[in-house]
Amino acid sequence: MTVEARPDYAETVEHPMTPFLRMDRIPHVWCPGCGIGTVVRCFASALEKSGIDLDKVSVVSGIGCAGRTAGYLKLDGFHTAHGRAIPFATGLKLGRPELTVTVLSGDGDLVGIGGNHFIHAARRNLDLLVVLINNFTYGMTGGQNGPTTPLSARSSTMPFGNFETPFNLPHLAASSGAPYVARWTSLHVRRLTWSIEEALERKGFRFIEVVAPCPVLYLRLNKLGDGVQRMRYYHDEAEIRNGADPGDAAIDFQGKILCGVFVDEERPTYQELMDEHYGNVLGDDYVPMPLEGGMLGGG
Amino acid sequence: MKTDPKGVLTGSHYLDGDFACGEGAMAAGCRFVAGYPITPSTEVVERIANRFPLVGGTFIQMEDELASMAAVVGASWTGTKSMTVTSGPGFSLMMENIGLAAMMETPCVVVDVQRAGPSTGLPTMVGQGDVMQARWGSHGDYELIAMSPQSPQESFDLMIDAFNLSEEYRVPVIILMDECVGHMTEKVVIPPADEIEVTPRRLTEVAPDDFLPYQINGQLVPEFARAGDGYRFHTTGLTHDERGYPGMSVEAQDANVSRLVDKIRVNAGDIVRFDEADTEGADVVVVTYGITARVSRAAIDIARGEGVDVGSVRLVVVWPFPEQRIRELAASVKGFVVPEINLGQLVLEVERCVAGQAVVRSVPHSGGAVHDPQTIAAAIVEVAR
């Protein structure tokens, strides 16, 4: 039996996400089995499906493995300081209100070093879409304990197991005032894509947590197998319950992962509140920031 | 170009340095301010919070100074002129994102109304101890510009210059005010808008497909693309190449960081600014900045009364430092007297430039008050002998 040579797909078939990616930066830095690439793929698919004007979309990341996402997406992309993606994004959004400003970053970045910014941005209901990729650890620096590391899980700085209570992120976001709160795993590619697309249509501080594997550090240090085995865990232990109380969404070591859209409400954004308030108080004297921004000489 | 008249409160006013600074920012075209309250700087943002809703600007009080500075860098990438305002403890927190602004080459202005430190120090009382922090406060090699006003009028005037320089060189510009100037009330004349020349953002005219965010084409300062104009550019705090992509090599580091430093060092002759008086034939030159320049005038009068030939150099731009002029003067004077409300910071720079050619005398003060002019006068007389 003769086997016909397979066509060279790399040369003949373009990846469908090519228009959304900086192909001149591929290959990316992420390890085999890492979930971040999947999230980037879902994010790009959601942008495509939303039909949004990509010229007006900015993506902001902090530091860490997930912090590299802004470097691969072919958008106005900002790779900022550790923990400061949300306040940087705040400046972008307030400086040019017509922009769609998104934040893609990791758990250590957004709720560890950047935790204060996270809760205040949610409280103010700033018009930002925040996708947090939660791999339960600091990957880029070598698997240290993070604000999301489950109790008893091992990390390089908790070699005898973690005894700190982790954040329940949907609960944190919801109780800080976020009007859209969801959680998925990187196995839920269709639901995640749909959820990002839905969040793009909403306004205010929209928060999506994506639980994703770190095979090289978190999984290895905890002897949990590879990325594929992690997909099996997500498959077995993820429970989708839209509308569930985010207070029930804490994740125990190898425990159930509650997924779904927990909060989907309408609440006026920071800018809407500002415009309404100044309009009421100052009347015609109020001059709002132009949608195209406050650059001298106009947009 | 002429500034937007909306932000200009033309006329004669009786303002303190903080309020004048806020008016200067608005007159310069600043339309985004993020800040966190801290004595003795808060009046600047209070003034802005009062006036911004009337002039099309957005002020946001952030959760801390880390966030304030990060938001300023973000806002500047929309082309909106942006600034923050703080004092010592907050200035320390801002160093992280001042470094990011330097690395991304983001125009912005940071006002530091100095109080006495270290740490919480004397929150309501004057100091000049942030001079070296303004120069070296963030890690790594970079250059920026710092200016120091001596009066409310100058607090207004220098804000225009600060924003213009930040646009021209794409660097953070620090306003090193001090508590005395910030809280001193004097006459401030704000000119008509059509007399205020402002530097617009240097937007590129290269088409998006051909544009590289850090390509310099023989210049030292790249052209700018702002978020939302279809350029889909990337920028990062990592060492990067002309595409804005991370470049983890010795060569990329050298090219990137050398240019950050060179764009100020090479142009230092255009940026340095100082008021020089009576230095010709002088035996002693007093080098000062900020409020201490005004205190030193009394000291100079006292020393002249004792027969000493005294000149002065008041730094309007503190960084870059006027190395060349100090070196020249060192060849002809007996010595320099450097009074500062710190225990000897800028005097080190004077010593470096003088390089043993003349005496250099520090007149230190730990902070909390200005110098007694007699102390400075005594140093002048001593150096003259």
Describe the structure.
The complex is a heterodimer of chains A (299) and B (385). Chain A has 299 residues and is α/β, with parallel strands linked by helices. Chain A has a single domain (24-285), classed as Rossmann fold. Chain A is 34% helix and 15% strand. Chain A has 11 helices and 8 strands. Chain A has helices spanning 9-12, 36-50, 69-72, 85-95, 107-113, 115-124, 169-176, 189-201, 215-221, 227-237, 270-282; strands at 57-61, 76-79, 100-106, 129-134, 180-185, 206-211, 238-240, 257-264. Chain A has an 8-stranded mixed β-sheet with strand order 2-1-3-4-6-5-8-7, with helices on both faces. In chain A, helix 5 crosses helix 6 (115-124) and helix 6 crosses helix 7 (169-176). The model of chain A has no long low-confidence stretch (mean pLDDT 95). With 385 residues, chain B is an alpha/beta fold. Chain B folds into 2 domains: 5-195, Thiamin diphosphate (ThDP)-binding fold, Pyr/PP domains (Rossmann fold, 3-Layer(aba) Sandwich), CATH 3.40.50; 272-384, Rossmann fold, CATH 3.40.50. In chain B, strands 2, 3, 4, 5, 6, 7, 8 and 14 form an 8-stranded mixed β-sheet that branches. A 5-stranded mixed β-sheet of chain B has the order 11-13-12-15-16, sandwiched between helices. In chain B, helix 1 (17-27) packs parallel to helix 2 (42-55). The radius of gyration of chain B is 21 Å and the shape is globular. At the A-B interface, strand 2, helix 4, helix 6 and helix 11 of A face helix 2, helix 3, helix 4 and strand 10 of B. Strand 2 (76-79) of chain A pairs parallel with strand 10 (234-236) of chain B, so a sheet runs across the interface.
